[in-house]
């Protein structure tokens, strides 16, 4: 194992193996019925310039952190340049937040085909979404880690997402194994 990879693994282990009692509340995730929040998701995606948006089946969640909760929806839509773009929409009361994932930002060279897996990982707890994505040259399972704080809009944990991607992580089990070494 090269020194840089060993250092990366030690840093990731320190970041994600910190005991829950050391700070922060535990996150719980429960699946919501399909169709929950569909109108709000459609409106948020349209405001972000996407058309034909859908929430993936089984990808609507109630996320609770301590005494606060939010609803999270993983979906996709078509951008103005006809690129399939995945996103996450969160809803807390009347507040709705849109976060583009595959097909935008750091992931703008790939297009989204769907979600393969969603699960909670690490401490502080994060949400891992494994996307089925495609670029002009290859198809890839791309891990994206979403940082969730009930008091702030969700955001991509770019450093952890990049580390998992560079390590070749293509499943939640592999992410958990890497993050707990």
Fold blueprint:
Blueprint: H1 3-16, E1 27-31, H2 38-47, E2 51-65, E3 68-78, E4 84-92, E5 95-100, E6 111-121, E7 126-134, E8 139-149, E9 152-156, H3 158-166, H4 172-179
Antiparallel strand pairs: 1-2, 2-3, 3-4, 4-5, 6-7, 7-8, 8-9
Overall description:
The protein has one domain. Mean pLDDT is 82; it is low at 1-23. The strands form two sheets. The protein has a five-stranded antiparallel β-sheet. Strands 6-7-8-9 form a four-stranded antiparallel β-sheet, covered by helices on one side. It is 23% helix and 45% strand. A hairpin with a 2-residue loop joins β4 and β5 (95-100). The two termini are 14 Å apart. The protein has helices at residues 3-16, 38-47, 158-166, 172-179; strands spanning 27-31, 51-65, 68-78, 84-92, 95-100, 111-121, 126-134, 139-149, 152-156. It has 181 residues and is an alpha+beta fold. It contains four helices and nine strands.
List keywords for this structure.
alpha+beta; five-stranded antiparallel beta sheet; 9 strands; disordered N terminus
Mean pLDDT: 82
Please report which band the strand proportion falls in: under 5%, 5-15%, 15-25%, 25-35%, 35-45% or over 45%. Answer: over 45%
Q: Compute the number of strand runs.
A: 9
Rg estimate, integer Å: 16 Å
Major sheet size, sense and barrel closure? 5 strands, antiparallel
Q: What is the count of DSSP helices, taking H or I runs of 4+ residues?
A: 4
What is the 3D shape?
A: globular
Alpha-beta classification: alpha+beta
Query: Numbering strands along the chain, what is their spatial order in the largest sheet?
Result: 1-2-3-4-5
The end-to-end span amounts to 14 Å
Query: Topology as H/E string?
Result: HEHEEEEEEEEHH
Uncertain parts: 1-23
- What share of residues is helical? 10-25%
Counting structural domains, the number is: 1
